[in-house]
Automatic annotation (TrEMBL):
Residues 1-31 form the signal peptide. GO terms for cellular component: bacterial-type flagellum basal body, distal rod, P ring; outer membrane-bounded periplasmic space. This is Flagellar P-ring protein. It comes from Rouxiella aceris. Assembles around the rod to form the L-ring and probably protects the motor/basal body from shearing forces during rotation.
Length: 376
């Protein structure tokens, strides 16, 4: 009996050690809230667009000879105010600029609510600093007016010019009006009437969709089901107020996210390389060499020995071209199972970010880079 007890205790200790090793070797799981993983279908911003005039500029407006639409717009606006401009009048305007006004209409907006607008010059105005945007209707994609914008434009840039020289800090041809538009028309919404809440994941992942559905069902808030890798449908009792309360509870549920897809992102314009923690490498050999072509051009001046010789001074160009190739040794890349080892291995190659992009592409083709390679 004692031997059996000792064997059982040793087995329990062995299992405990094995469980500890498995927990140390397995990647840590992270818990995120559903509000950080998904958005509610139909709850989004809507783009608004308008065309208007900015007045009160200090001589930095549009040049009317090159932007005739500014003069035409001003003439139409004055006619609506009861002022008739004689035909053929050449108005030399310096303090007016034609602008495009953009804004985002938030979901569930009500009449009278203030929203921010962005004002951008569309002509050749030098600066919008100190200008005032006149009343501008903002329309949606259905050509209906949803807001009216007006107010003083705040420009974050600064500039000065004198004697043909100029200096500019930030952008002067665009500005912002905080709370510069008032909502005049409300968008119709069906939220809280059909008893169904559709959650749209930010990333297409079947494991994440199923994990979100299981987490909601465990809380017993509603009947959740994963429709595909991006959409999760939740059936809840009908009624607007109850759906708001249920959605608030759903968004605060923590979901344990397992390992994600290994991915390497390469920005070919900036030379940036970003990889997540699930990227691994297999053993391979890499040889990377740099080929550079250097062209040097200089000018030689040839002139006569004596002033009375009748010759002329001649400038002749001299060009030297050299080709250099550095590196090229074959190095072995060890198999790496963690991000730290991958970084250490790639740094050991001594490659620049530009060279690293070519190396990663070749590794992906050779099958030793265990990750999806995405070039943006």
């Amino acid at each position: 009996m004692k031997k059996f007890t000792d064997s059982l205790s040793r087995l329990v200790r062995s299992l405990a050690v094995a469980a500890t090793l498995i927990s140390l070797c397995s990647p840590p799981a992270s818990a995120d809230r559903i509000r950080d993983l998904a958005s509610v279908q139909g709850v989004r911003d809507n783009a608004l667009l308008g065309y208007g005039l900015v007045v009160g500029l200090d001589g930095s407006g549009d040049q009317t000879t090159q932007t005739p639409f500014t003069t035409q717009t001003l003439t139409n606006m004055l006619s609506q105010l009861g002022i008739t401009v004689p035909a053929g009048t050449n108005m030399q305007l310096k303090n007016v600029a034609a602008v495009m006004v953009t804004a985002k209409l938030p979901p569930f907006s009500r009449s009278g609510q203030a929203i921010d607008v962005v004002v951008s010059s569309m002509g050749n105005a030098k600066s919008l600093r100190g200008g005032t945007l006149l009343m501008t209707p903002l329309k949606g994609v259905d050509n209906q007016v949803y807001a009216l914008a007006q107010g003083n434009v705040l420009v974050g840039g600064a500039g000065a010019s004198s004697g043909g020289s100029s200096v500019t800090v930030n952008q002067l041809s665009g500005g912002r009006i905080t709370g510069g538009a008032t909502v005049e028309r409300e968008l119709p919404t069906t939220f809280g009437t059909d008893g169904v809440i559709n959650l749209q994941l930010h990333e297409d992942d079947f494991n994440m969709a199923q994990a979100v559905s299981d987490a909601i069902n465990r809380r017993g808030i509603g009947m959740a089901s994963a429709l595909d890798g991006r959409n999760v449908q939740v059936r809840v009792p009908r009624g607007g107020s109850s759906q708001v309360r249920i959605l608030a509870e759903i968004q605060n549920i923590d979901v344990v996210i397992g390992p994600m897809d290994a991915k390497v992102i390469i920005n070919s314009r900036t030379g940036s390389v970003v990889m997540n923690r699930d990227v691994t490498l297999d053993t391979c050999a890499v040889a990377q060499g740099n080929l550079s072509v250097v062209v040097n051009q200089s000018s030689n001046v040839s002139q006569p020995n004596t002033p009375l010789a009748g010759g002329q001074t001649v400038v002749t160009p001299s060009t030297d071209i050299s080709v250099r190739q550095n590196g090229g040794s074959l190095q072995r890349v060890q198999s790496s199972a963690s991000l730290n080892n991958v970084v250490r291995t790639l740094n050991a190659l001594g490659a620049t970010p530009i060279d690293l992009m070519s190396i990663l592409q070749a590794m992906k083709t050779a099958g030793c880079l265990r990750a999806d390679l995405e070039i943006i």
